[in-house]
Specification:
The termini are far apart. This protein is elongated. Helix 1 runs parallel beside helix 2. It is built from three helices and four strands. Helix content is about 50%, strand content about 25%. It has a four-stranded mixed sheet, with helices on one face.
Amino acid sequence: MRIYVNGRNIEITDAIKAYAKEKIGKVATHYDQITGIDVVLSVIKNPSVAENHTAEVSCKFTTGQVQVTETAESMYASIDLVADKLARQVQKYKEKNLKSKAHSDSIRKESPANEEAEEEVVVEAE
C-alpha cells in the first residue's frame, strides 16, 4: 500500500508528512484490500476564513474508493479529523462489502445434500 502526501498552497514539511502518514496509515489495519491512499493538504490564504486548513483523503480499494474531506483551524487538527472520519468510512465500506459477498454466495449455491437426493431418485427410477 502506498500513501502519497501532497500540498496545495503550503510547503509540506517532513513533520507534517510523517504525522499524516502515521495517522492515515493506521486505517490500513482495518481492511487489507486498500491499494493506495492519496492525501492532499491545502491552506486557504484568506485572513477572514477561520478554518483555513483542509485535509482531503482518497482511499482506493480493489473494488472501489472512499473520499473524505475535513477542515479545521490547524493542519494537525484537520489530519486528526480526517483520519477518524476515514476509519469510520473504511469500516462501513468493509462491512457493506462483506455483507454483499456473503449474501450473494448463499443465493447462488445449492446445498450438496439436495443434489445427492436428486441423483438417488433417478437411480431408483431406472
